[in-house]
Amino acid sequence: MISRLLDLFLAYEVDPNVNLIILKGNGRAFCAGGDVAAVVHDIRKANWKSGAQFFSKEFILNYVMATYTKPQVSILNGIVMGGGNGVTMHGRFRVATETSVFAMPETALGLFPDVGASYFLSRLPGFFGEYVGLTGARLDGAEMLACGLATHFVPATKLSLLEEALHKVDSSDSAIISAIIDCYSQQPYLKDQSAYRRLDVIDRCFSRKTVEDILSALEKEYMDKADDWIKNTIQSLKKASPTSLKISLRSIREGRIQGVGQCLTREFRMVCHVMEGKLSKDFFEGCRAILLDKDRNPKVNEMAQHSPLSPYPP
Which residues are in the Enoyl-CoA hydratase/isomerase domain (predicted)? Predict the structure, then answer.
């Protein structure tokens, strides 16, 4: 899919008959992410370089999308997770619906938010990007719009009308395309239990310098408020790979002062280190628990053997 998309995007950019790109999923999801299990399978056969080639092409596609001269309209109906965000978040228009589910769940897999996530997460309001990237929290369409991950919200029942209108566009003018999407857009209700309504707590806790400080701040908040959302956030962090949490936090912080090309280059170097080094143990265990055996119970204490976070139990 990545190879095909890359070929098409490169061809369409120089094709005078193409004014914009409409990207959507073929099924009930937009894109649930890359085939990480296949990468793990290759690494176990001492062939981590095939995984590196996969990530290299994927990140090149992400960069092409981020620097594309023609508008890209991504219709995010259904799940958009992990690598799926790499083929949409760099585009100009990102249309969420009531079925949209966003997540970057990499820390649970022993990896880190990649595909340029250190760029687009670091540019969310406050420290919401750190929260989303470290916990792997799932956001609905209303939350995606509120924090800026989506540019528009269109009810799923209106998507066919939107696509029909976009197919008639004879210009690459972003203002014209935005105006067309606006005709079908609405302002969704942000639920009271939404994480985005807790941005003040998120900013207080996830602005801390280290992962240990973040956890300590969250635990103090929970003692003061006994909020189930805070409890669940703490549990999400403690189930993730401790080393991945540290890598992810630093990556997002560095992303704040880097361009998208710098972020993707750095992330590629990071993922190669994960695949070929000691961190591959975390990667194996996370993928076993989430993707292969699906018991969703990674052995955090084993994963934490190289991390100062090991005192925190699963």
Answer: 1-301
